[in-house]
Specification:
- Chain B: WD repeats lie at residues 8-40, 274-306.
- The structure holds two protein chains of two kinds.
- Chain A is mostly helical.
- Chain A has helices spanning 66-88, 95-122, 130-154, 161-173, 176-185, 196-205, 209-222, 227-239, 251-270, 278-287, 291-296, 298-301, 304-315, 324-335, 344-353, 357-368, 371-383, 398-410, 417-425, 431-439, 447-459, 463-479, 483-492, 496-513, 519-523, 533-549, 553-565, 574-585, 594-611, 618-651; strands spanning 12-16, 25-30, 34-41, 53-58.
- Chain A has a three-stranded antiparallel beta sheet, with no helix packed on it.
- In chain A, helix 13 packs across helix 14.
- Chain A starts with 11 loop residues before the first strand and ends with a helix.
- Chain B is mainly β.
- In chain B, the strands form six sheets. Chain B has a four-stranded antiparallel beta sheet, with no helix packed on it. A four-stranded antiparallel beta sheet of chain B has the order 6-7-8-9, with no helix packed on it.
- Chain B is 5% helix and 40% strand.
- The chains are: A mainly alpha, B mainly beta.
- Strand 4 (53-58) of chain A pairs antiparallel with strand 1 of chain B, so a sheet runs across the interface.
């Protein structure tokens, strides 16, 4: 049953067209990257002709976007780099190393966003699909969240520095003001531009005081009457204390100085120094962090977290990390007061401000349904030892759980699966088991691909998978009548039975065609021919043919004989071997010695006596008998010449 | 998740089983029309039927592939009381030119006296072994001693379950620590005969299969059982399709030193029990790494179940028919005119990725005034992406309710007090 707290998250319904009614029964089958569905018992409706359909349901078409593929590739490098640096360095790594890794991840996201935007601008609208636009918006959100996590969790900036980072964060993600400023500055009279004050206020809201001052200076030159007011404002802006983390100033000194400045601003407001210019007064109120004024600038702030950071800048510039959550909740409530429920992004950012790392990861998993993001972020946070306290009784920890999910997704892709291997390598608990299950499913379409998969398995001592791949390839080659390939794969698989079988096929082929295919392969078997007796025989028999071809008759004859006397040759092949001996026996020069000839004769007799038990057809019998007669004659002649020659040699 | 394409299977009756081969490049279908069809996936992802032949003289219930180490081998079982083994051979050259492959029957297994309800190959480390179960309550294990000669099969074991058998599942674990093990389910509907799932284990000493355990808590008819891949765990996970979807952990108990010859006893823990189908469940099946379980019930739905990292199982996805009647005509080109409603839903599904196990991004941010990424969302072109032709008026494409778009959940909420 559903538990009450989880009612809010419902399963997603996918509708399959042309399936009749709720009474029908759906059959299904898991596939690589997809699922098949079919109606297996028809629901109501008229009985009659059926046209069964099989529906292919897919889940991850984004995987095929070429730009996201780049994201996966690049982040894979960073991921592997991080794992290796952890393995190599014995000492505890420094925070700045993690920050730089985090920045690398973010720059990969940025590069993707820029590439997508570039396509959007440079090409026809039709080139970008709705999904691409979605991807841009999602990547932007992901980068925003990641950046905040970097500041709060990884960099763990202390009071003072914290706000500087948050300001950067807001500036980077609300960069729209820069475009407007450019437009303004390129206009004929910037000071009279209708958006002049919008831009100034935006700059002030983002704490970009220098830019604001430069703009205000343009206005000041045009309004000499108000020059003292502009001078006062410029003075206030110029004097605004900014914490310098590398300086000698302590945080207390900074706060004291800032307090004085704040009072000075307040004095000017109460003096009505800016009363003559409502915009100047607004700027002054912003400098004082006046909530109502800030909230009236919603259109410039655009979101509650900008509001939060601006408010902190002008009220609590030395905010402590642990106090952030109170301000964040308050600012969000104030900013979104008409909204019944915050959007997922709001909840995620709020959880981050509350330093609730698990909530961030959980919410991201639900909202983004994006394993890439949660897997990489969680891995990095785990390396920063921020997840150590959460030992999970599932056995695997959260990091591994997410990495396994991400890598499993990669494995459904025809080329990205290679990246997944490294992710599995760094999952100590289930990584090996997952890799074994996934890699054996990679379809071995070509020899090249099979070799690639094989290398991965060999590097990891996955002996069973290595054997299985070789076996499959051997079987496939044999199926396609590619004996050479089948033989070399079965040698790799160390499959003696199969090697024997293929050797027999080679020998059969030889008997029917009188020549060997793949001679080069067999000639170069080396020690691998020892895998099976039959294979050894095949190798040796080919060697005999080579020697014979090279006219090294004595060696050839010796080898041929030994194949029979050592009982290496299958009995069924003896007649072929003896027939092969015929031309050697009939050479003018004596090749088989008398002793060797005796042995050949013995082999022939052994063969013919055992053959008598069998009853071949009469016609075959006739041919056999003729062959045997011929052999006997040749052997007798050779024996005679050998004895004569050996006798004459001995005589000397 | 979304329907990427629909393939007219061209069977003349209902399909009973569809089975992917080990690498997912081929599939086999079987039907009440007594035939089996083999389909091959082309470079472009299209499926082509490369063989279709009459296999039995009754409805074909199940079709299954042997591991590719044994070649291209299929087994089928049927109402005609037989199971059969088929092997693809290199056919005539003109067959190949027509893109057709040739399958020949290697054997017919005729030992059953009733309908053969399931057929499964044993895990490959056991060799080439085939298991059948039948309505007369007998599980039979056959072996091809010579893997190069599939016409010779010997009946190695006959296990009498005494209850009408509907399904079998081998434990895929190849660990030496576990003896070969299989689960058998019974669809006998006599509630007095308790325990509709039996676990049999091979005993090295007696060289026989002996009943190791009966899942006595399963008293209703069972239509499918499925062992999950072991993943190196010390226990086994079994899913059962009965009146609900059940997941059990089978934890081997330490054997008494004195009774080493007896079968392993298990502590059987119910991990999950879901009644969502509200009706008979017909199939259960795990994905490759058993992170997802799919189940099909008489409510016309397939449900996807997923465990979070705490091991808590939840329903994350539902797939069901759209309720449109099938009009009985199929287009030869596989392009079907979509009924209005379903096309809309399909497009929504594809654009918004409302799925339980899609890996990437459904739109996170609805357009919000002034926010930086809302400007892109406003540029959305009209959705025209779907492989099927669709006569639906594009104006009627409605965006789903914004809340619905965020309800995907690969990860379940973290219970605060879990495990205390």
């Amino acid at each position: 049953m559903w538990e009450i707290e989880e009612l809010d998250v419902e399963p997603i319904t996918t509708v399959i067209p042309w399936v009749n009614s709720s009474k029908s029964r759906l059959g299904f089958e898991w596939g690589p990257g997809d699922m098949l569905f079919y109606e297996t018992v028809k629901g109501g409706g008229p009985k009659g002709k059926v046209c069964p359909l099989i529906h292919v349901v897919r889940k991850d078409e984004e995987m095929y976007s070429p730009i996201l593929r780049k994201l996966f590739n690049e982040s894979h490098h960073i991921f592997v780099g991080l794992q290796r640096s952890q393995e190599e360095s014995a000492s505890k790594p420094k925070t700045h190393q993690f920050v730089s890794i985090s920045k690398n991840y973010r720059s990969v996201i940025r590069a993707c966003i820029e590439e997508l935007q570039h396509i959007a601008v440079s090409s026809a609208v039709s080139a970008l699909t709705a999904q691409d636009y979605n991807q841009i918006s999602i990547l932007l959100a992901v980068e925003l969240i990641w950046n905040l996590c970097e500041i709060l969790f990884i960099e763990a900036a202390p009071a003072g520095t914290l706000l500087l980072h948050l300001l950067d964060w807001v500036q980077v993600h609300n960069a729209g003001v820069d475009d407007e400023a450019q437009e303004l500055l390129h206009s004929e009279d910037p000071a009279q531009h209708p958006k002049f004050w919008d831009v100034v206020i935006c700059y002030v809201l983002q704490g970009r005081i220098q830019e604001a001052r430069q703009l205000l200076a343009k206005q000041a030159t045009q309004k000499p009457a108000a020059s003292s007011m502009f001078k006062t404002m410029d003075g206030l802006l110029k004097k605004m204390p900014v914490f310098n983390p590398s300086g000698n100033q302590t945080l207390t000194e900074f706060e004291l100085k800032w307090g004085h400045w704040h009072e000075e601003c307040n004095r000017h407001l109460e003096d009505s120094s800016f009363a003559s210019n409502s915009n100047m007064e607004t700027v002054c109120k912003i400098l004082l962090g006046d909530k109502d004024t800030l909230l009236s600038q919603k259109k410039h702030l655009t979101n509650w977290y900008h509001f939060l950071v601006t408010q902190l800048l002008y009220t609590h510039p030395a905010v402590k990390p642990q106090d952030l959550q109170y301000y964040a909740q308050e600012c969000m409530d104030m900013f979104l007061k008409n909204q019944i429920e915050p959007e997922p992004l709001d909840s995620i950012l709020l959880a981050a401000f509350k330093f609730d790392i698990l909530q961030v990861i959980k919410d991201c998993s639900i909202a983004l349904n994006n394993w890439w993001f949660v897997a990489h972020l969680t891995d990095l946070l785990d390396h920063c030892r921020l997840l150590q306290s959460h030992n999970l009784h599932f056995g695997s920890n959260l990091r591994e759980f997410l990495l396994l999910e991400y890598a499993s997704g990669l494995f459904t892709h025809h080329s990205l699966w290679q990246l997944a291997v490294d992710y599995f390598d760094y999952c100590p608990e289930f990584g090996k088991a997952y890799l074994e299950l996934h890699i054996e499913r990679v379809s071995l379409d070509t020899e090249r691909k099979a070799l690639k998969v094989l290398r991965i398995c060999e590097q990891r001592q996955m002996t069973e998978q290595v054997r299985s791949i070789c076996k499959i390839m051997a079987k496939k080659s044999l199926h396609n009548n590619r004996l050479g390939s089948a033989l070399s794969w079965s040698i790799r698989a160390k499959d003696a039975g199969f090697a024997t079988l293929i050797s027999d096929r080679f020998l059969e082929d030889y008997c029917s065609r009188g020549s060997f295919s793949d001679l080069e392969l067999i000639d170069n078997l080396g020690t691998s021919m020892l895998l099976s007796d039959r294979l050894t025989f095949l190798g040796k028999y080919c060697e005999f043919h080579r020697l014979y071809g090279e006219k090294r008759f004595t060696e050839a004859a010796k080898l041929l004989l030994s194949l029979m006397t050592a009982r290496l040759a299958p009995r069924s092949f003896w007649m072929t071997l003896l027939t092969d001996a015929l031309p050697l026996l009939e050479q003018k020069k004596v090749i088989f010695s008398a002793e060797q000839t005796y042995e050949l004769m013995q082999c022939l007799e052994e063969l013919t006596s055992s053959d008598q038990n069998e009853h071949p057809s009469e016609q075959e019998d006739d041919i056999e008998i003729t062959k045997v007669e011929l052999l006997r004659l040749a052997l007798a002649r050779n024996l005679a010449s050998a004895i004569v020659q050996e006798g004459s040699v001995n005589a000397f | 998740m979304f329907v990427a394409r629909s393939i007219p299977a061209d069977h003349k009756d209902l399909i009973h089983d569809v089975s992917y081969d080990f690498h997912g490049r081929r599939m086999a279908t079987c039907s009440s029309d007594q035939s089996v069809k083999v389909w091959d996936k082309g470079e472009n992802g299209e499926w082509h039927c490369t063989a279709s032949w009459k296999t039995h003289s009754g409805s074909v219930w199940r079709v299954t592939w042997a591991h590719p180490e044994f070649g291209q081998v299929l087994a089928s079982c049927s109402f005609d009381r037989t199971a059969a083994v088929w092997e693809e051979i290199v056919g005539e050259s003109n067959d190949k030119q027509r893109g057709q492959s040739h399958w020949i029957k290697r054997t017919t297994l005729v030992d059953s006296r009733t309908s053969v309800t399931d057929v499964k190959f044993a895990p490959k480390h056991m060799g080439l072994m085939l298991t059948t179960c039948s309505a007369d309550g007998v599980v039979r294990i056959y072996e091809a001693p010579d893997v190069m000669n599939l016409s010779q099969w010997s009946l190695q074991h006959e296990i009498s379950c005494k209850l009408s058998c509907s399904c079998i599942s081998w434990n895929p674990s190849s660990s030496r620590a576990h003896s070969p093990m299989l689960a058998v389910g019974s669809d006998d509907n006599n509630p007095n005969l308790v325990g509709k799932v039996h676990i049999y284990e091979y005993n090295e000493n007696t060289r026989k299969y002996a009943k190791a355990e009966t899942l006595s808590m399963v008293t209703d008819p069972v239509h499918d059982v499925a062992f999950a891949p072991n993943l190196g765990r010390s226990f086994h996970v079994l899913a059962v399709a009965t009146k609900d979807v059940c997941i059990f952990n089978l934890v081997p108990l330490r054997k008494e030193p004195s009774s080493t010859s007896g079968p392993t006893k298990f502590d059987i823990q119910t991990v999950a029990q879901f009644e969502h189908h509200n009706s008979q469940v017909w199939r259960v099946s795990w994905n490759i790494t058993s992170t997802l379980l799919a189940s099909s019930g008489d409510d016309g739905c397939v449900r996807l179940w997923k465990a979070n990292y705490m091991g808590n199982w939840k329903c994350t996805g539902i797939l069901k028919g759209d309720g449109t009647p099938v009009n009985g005509t199929s287009n030869q080109h596989g392009m079907l005119t979509s009924p209005l409603g379903s096309a809309n839903q399909t497009i929504q599904g594809s654009l918004n990725g409302t799925s339980a196990s899609r890996y990437f991004f459904p739109p996170l941010e609805p357009p919000r005034a002034g926010s930086r990424w809302s400007s892109y969302a406003q540029l959305l072109p009209p959705p025209t992406l779907i492989e099927q032709t669709c006569d639906a008026d594009t104006a009627s494409h409605q965006l789903p309710h914004p809340r619905r778009r965020y309800t995907t959940r690969p990860l379940n909420p973290l219970p605060e007090n879990e495990g205390d």
